[in-house]
Design a protein that fits this description.
384 residues, alpha/beta, 14 helices, 11 strands
């Protein structure tokens, strides 16, 4: 008996609400605004491989490609139930992205490879990031080069820039990679190393496009939303600094739209693009909208940014000694992400690809929180 069959009728209805009625499914009218060619009957379908398809961004990339009429193949490391992907009707290949044979098999006869798989989060041992981020990127990119795909779209991160100092002007794609990398900062270092390898392959003939999103959130985010909404409910949420600084956060569905646009635009080959926000929003308003969407009051409690960062250093040091597998309550990266005063320039992706957000922050955040609350309800039901 499958996972879906094992649910009670009422439970199955809840799952259908979470999946079929997600506003980003292929019948979403917003996809009509995408500047891509839909499949023409009688013509061969575009074939796409998506890595990391069971994750937040990867699942949205799958949706957007299906909306365009493409055949989508995904490579999954385990055979755990994937009801969302099953309902979408993708072709599933089971294999490890560190295995060159599995990667070559997955890339066989595909037009585009969208690589979104990586170790999630900024906490962990260096060998984990080396294996799950750097090595997987090396193997799938080399397999894509061997398969002569039309485009390899790599999901990097603004973390590839390192930790630049606060500034009044935005960071563009010409900014050097790996600036001011901290000691014991495996997440950032792994992002930098991935890009360095890919740009070498680009010079060797890989048709590469790199997208550098900022902090991702959205429906199917079971990590950030759980932590943030949980802290808001518990009254533990604090703004880092006065809260008037600009937050760089992007809905995963918007990045997924940009992936499909990048694949279809010749100008995008050999280019990197920042995609970091839906417009300007402060830390106070971002978390305020999130709190209101969860039926809670906005937090006005603050903590001094330098103090928060120093506390995160202490928490990380203690955490590595006592419970190295579990991230501390506040990491340096999280404190920096929330309290910094710098932002990124999205001019290039708007100009080259015609990407413009189709949702605003209030709509996007409320939709994400609504999904999270329903998902939490489903989790509680299935554990009865």
């Amino acid at each position: 008996m499958g996972f879906l069959d094992s649910l009670k009728t009422s439970d199955h209805d809840i799952l259908q609400t979470l999946i079929v009625k997600d506003p980003r499914m292929p019948d979403d009218p917003l996809t009509a605004s995408m500047n891509i060619e839909n499949h023409v009957p009688g013509q061969p379908k575009i074939k796409v491989l998506v890595t990391g398809a069971s994750g937040l961004l990867g699942s949205h990339i799958v949706e957007q490609w299906l909306a365009s009429g493409a055949d989508v193949r995904v490579i999954l490391r385990s055979e755990r139930p994937t009801p969302f992907l099953d309902l979408l009707g993708v072709t599933k290949v089971h294999g490890n992205l560190t295995d060159p044979i599995a990667c070559r098999f997955a890339c066989e006869d595909v037009d585009y490879v969208c690589h979104a798989a990586a170790k999630v989060g900024d906490w962990g041992k260096w060998d984990e990031f080396q294996r799950d981020t750097i090595e997987t990127t090396r193997q799938i990119s080399e397999a894509a080069l061997h398969a002569k795909v039309k485009r390899f779209i790599h999901i990097s991160s603004t973390s590839a820039y390192g930790h630049p100092d606060d500034r009044d002007t935005p960071i563009s794609e010409t900014h050097p990679l790996g600036e001011n990398i901290w000691r014991k900062d495996p997440y950032t270092l792994a992002k930098v190393e991935c890009e360095r390898h890919l740009w070498k392959l680009s010079n060797a003939g890989l048709p590469l496009t790199v997208l550098r999103p900022s902090w991702l959130y959205g429906p199917r985010d079971r990590i950030t939303l759980a932590r943030m909404v949980g802290n808001l409910k518990a009254g533990k949420m604090r703004l880092i600094g006065p809260g008037d600084n600009r937050i760089s956060a992007i809905d995963a569905s918007e990045v997924a739209r940009a992936v499909v646009l990048a694949a279809s635009q010749p100008v995008a080959e050999g280019q990197a693009y920042n995609i970091t926000d839906l417009g300007e929003i402060s830390q106070f308003d971002f978390f305020g909208i999130m709190a209101e969407a969860a039926g809670l009051k906005r937090t006005t409690k603050t903590v001094n940014y330098p103090l928060a960062f120093y506390a995160s250093v202490c928490m990380e040091t203690w955490g590595r000694l006592v419970h190295p597998s579990r991230p501390p309550m506040l990491t340096r990266y999280a404190a920096w992400l929330m309290g910094r005063r710098l932002w990124y320039d999205n001019t290039k992706i708007r100009r080259d690809l015609g990407w413009v957000p189709v949702v605003d922050y209030p709509t996007s955040i409320r939709r994400a929180v609504d999904w999270y609350l329903k998902d939490s309800n489903l989790t509680a039901v299935t554990k009865r």
